[in-house]
Model the fold of this input.
Amino acid sequence: MKVVWSWLKDYVNLDGVTPEELAERWTLAGLEVEGVTRVGDWWDPALIVVGAVTRVEPHPDADRLCLAWVDWGAGEPHRCVTGAPNLYQLREQGDLPTPMKVVFAREGSVLVDAYSDDPTPKRIKLKGRKVRGIMSDAMVCSERELGISEEHEGILVLEDDAPVGAPIGDVLGDAIFDLDLTANYAYAANMVGIARETAALLGRPFTEPPLPTLGDTAQSDGAGDSTGDNTGAGAGADAATLVAVAIDDPALCPRYTARVIRGVTVGPSPAWMQRRLRLAGMRPINNVVDVTNYTMLEWGEPLHAFDYDRLVARADGGTPSITVRLARPGETMTTLDDAERTLTPKTLLITDSAGPIAMAGVMGGADTEVGAETTNILLEAATFDFVSIRRATKHYALPSESAWRFGRDVPPQLSEAGSRCAAGLLAELAGGTVAPGVVDAYPGPRTNPTITMPIADFERVLGVALPSAEIVGLLHRLGFEAAVQGDDYKDGETLTATAPAHRVDQQLPADLIEEVGRVYGYDRLPATALADPLPTQRDNPRLMQEDATRDALAAAGLQEIISYRFTAIAHESMLDASAGGTGTSSGDETGADEQNGVSSTYVTLRNPSSPDRAVMRRSILTGLLDAAAANRRYRERIALFEVGSVFHPAAGKDLPDEPRHAGLVLLGPGTPGDWRSSGEAQDSVRPLDFYDGKGAVEVLLDTLGVEATFAAGSHPSLHPGRTAAVHVGGEEGAALAGHVGELHPLVRERWALGDEPVVVAELDLDVLAQASGVVRPFVGFSTYPPVERDLAVVVDEATPAGDVERAIRSAGGPLLVHCALFDVYRGEQLPAGKKSLAFSLRFQAPNKTLEGKAVDGMRGRIVKTLESAVGAEIR
Amino acid sequence: MAHADIERVEREGLAALAAIDDLAALDDWRVTWLGKSGTASGLLRGIGALAAEERPAFGAAVNTMKQALEGALDERAAVLRAAALADEMAGDAIDVTLPGTRPPQGGLHPATVADRRALQIYAEMGFQVYLSREVETDEMNFELLNMPKHHPARDMQDTFYISDEVVLRTHTSPGQIRAMRAYAPEPIRIVLPGMVYRSEQVTVRSEMQFTQIEGLAIGPGITMADLKGTISNFAGRYYGEDRPIRFRASYFPFTEPSAEVDVRCTCGGEGCKLCKGTGWLEIMGCGMVHPVVLKNGGYDPARVSGFAFGGGTMRTQMLAHQIDDIRHYWANDLRFLEQLR
Ligand SMILES: [Zn+2]
Done:
């Protein structure tokens, strides 16, 4: 919303306050000022002044130009050449009976280049030149040349009392505030509202604009005193005989008032009103529309003017009868913008006997629109349910100043002031006569509640002890009725307060606390340390696990990434080697229902930002592979991990499961190359492979204190021969925690990741959490010497080393303290299909030196076990 | 006569030793002067020519001389060894300005770094982390936070909907309700970090997915002054003691009173492009927990009060590191990530 400084001064004295200071005060009180624009702070006060056009003549040598003599308060009137229509039309007049006040700029003035096509045209210096033989070294200015608006149809005409010779900044200089008002400050989104607020914040009196009585006796409901002049009041038939109003549902329309103004002449509104509208960001249309807009800007009550004679015609010459109701199925109407609209049954309409005449609060109908020929007007000032208006605004995509206000709850009391103000202005500015009385259907009167609360609650919440008199004083400044009962501050002093009608936001004690705090100033509250005792402190195992995971993987040389949790089913299905995997598949294998676009497998957005961000990821791998592919363009070695939620719809539940996954991707050379290895042959550097991924997973599992087993496994994304399933929870009730493996070649190809292995892992942290946290007791180390023995075992190629190791450990007994694979050999010295696994074994007793004979015995037992368990031969 | 011989031998031996400058020659010298058939031993062989009573003194003098030569030999050897080592090391000198060999280096995502910094400060003030889910009910995300359907404040948070009743959380605040319901009537002092989602155009300044940290304190004596104290304390550490902050009234449906917290812009208040001329940068929203929200969480607003605060952590980091485009965060370009870990 735009607030005009000069307009604001009508209601509150701003002497001694600069626009910037006021902007700061508003902002601190919650009325956020996004910017202050000074109007005309660049106008040269010596060169651009108020002038009076005293004489106009045709240009002797140019049909479309005229000559104007401008008195600017120094010597003889100055002759200007101009083509401005509003002077040109006077060219036959010679001396004007009443001089016309204009903006006069002399040579050297800097003005906006009005003929530029640039949306933000440059300013240029006015230079004298001959126009068709006559010297032109000064000019009369349009609004565009002064940078006030885009208006360049004619020159700007000032009020008759503008003092000739005065710097134009004194007359037109202004400041425009751009306010970004949050929903609760909607009451301040009008000049009266912002003026009340300003007066309260500055502690100065607020001058409410007088409202015309219009000769009727309808009682004001507190929104303005019925004083002022009676321009155009009360002639002819009473409004009640001219229109009837009915409201179907008072909840949707608590109040509907109608007045009739007869005999108006539609034409331009006066300069002062046009100027204010423009400065406030609205375009002047004609006096009738301008009056309704001006009244809305002044009082915050949106209004609508219908062509009364069109209503009579639609009633076949009878008395128009207005009904406020919801649209009927299939009903249509043509709105002001000439769009024919099919109305939903939830749309609130203003109708007459012939059908809809307006979408309530949102847009009028074309058929009853006020036009140049209109003479009689029906003026609507009503209140509509804000939810209904918001819904319609959104559904029909018709945002407007009116809908914005109605959508933030306009109190019904405001209809009175709005109707009166606009009717009075129509009489005054359009020459109309206001029919006596108002038709006022008011089935849903509203009053603000009286709030009662302990005075001590202000201190309890704000943390500062304010005397009750100060609290009451602050509320009075805001227009509240407020009083205190009782006299003991801590026990029994009670505040009773009622907000003025326009403060629909004041319903609870907390609302009063905020008002008092806000006007008192949050900057004046003390800043204190929490005095309440510290609540019970608790461990957060999930957070600790996530942090430990990140730290372990980062320490292992991997870089954390964070991806969009959004993806597309087609994109994620690229992870499935057996699926089409073009990235554009419909995802039928993943459970998506193509018929209605809803997936039972995916958490699916109803309003995605784009098709490739339409569902929430189920796997953490796509983001990792996307990042690997993107970084691969300029990095050889990629080592990334991510920790975060994935989303799995849960059958029978509204909310999906959100398991936290950790994933990683590795590819490229096993060691980062540097200047020292540059001479080495490329192929001597081992590429990262399965075992690097497994190693990283092992480090992670160790860090988390998880005992896990790795076994050959299968996964749709992974190489069937190079995949390990990771299980936790021991032999009994083992749970699958995830996989580590090399990417299936088909999947690798889809991400264009080259020919070398791409290792990925994805683990479910929630599953790991169930198996972690085992506190392992400390095992003392023996001071007796260990005995080392190597053992080379020849087994079938298919026999997993893990099985061999397990057999060794189980046969070795407690004195086998260490067993590690140190070599795997295949080759000429072995039969085909065989491999040799070499283990180093260490035996040690806690309480004595082991004798060679005893160790040999243990080794023998191991050998025997290996022969029977895995068919091993000892080399 | 004989004693003069001893002195001569010593003199000549030392002179010969001083002339030696490589370690191998030292051994020859030792054999020549101190060996079994060396010059010193030769003097003793002539001992028979002396009177019996002179012999002990002569023998002692020869031994003394031998010890002197041996001492000199050791000294000379040490000098030569040191010189040889110095020579050797001089040949081994390397260019220490060549790059070091780093182990493969990993790191944390900038958003994680930013979160941890803030969470650490809050932790030291007793605010513990409470983690909460990302897909939420409309009820938790809005209604219980005093934002019924069609509430104007919903305009401020463009929402991704899964269904009429399920949304991607638009803020971490639904965790407030979950925490309150978990802990009521106990007092609360928590922070809620996490990913939130808004259906917004992705631009240089705005993302549809971003991280937030929200704080919540509930107890019998919590005031807005405490809120100011807590945030001032945080801001002093996070932004620096020399950066003033201010509280200005604002509006959030779930707090009342509500305020925005601004920190002095890096321009020092002069006004610049970054602060749009205001001299201040918005860092978080805050307020006293709305009585309706307290009630929804299971607390009696007549007996307890609370404050909440929250804001994006990425924005702060962007200001500190002059990151001009928020889209860097989820693009996962190592050239970005590695600069901020
Ligand atoms: Zn700045």
In short: Residues B 265, 267, 271-272, 274-275, 279 surround zinc ion (CB under 6 Å). The domain at 542-673+685-771 of chain A is CATH 3.30.930.10 (BirA Bifunctional Protein; domain 2).
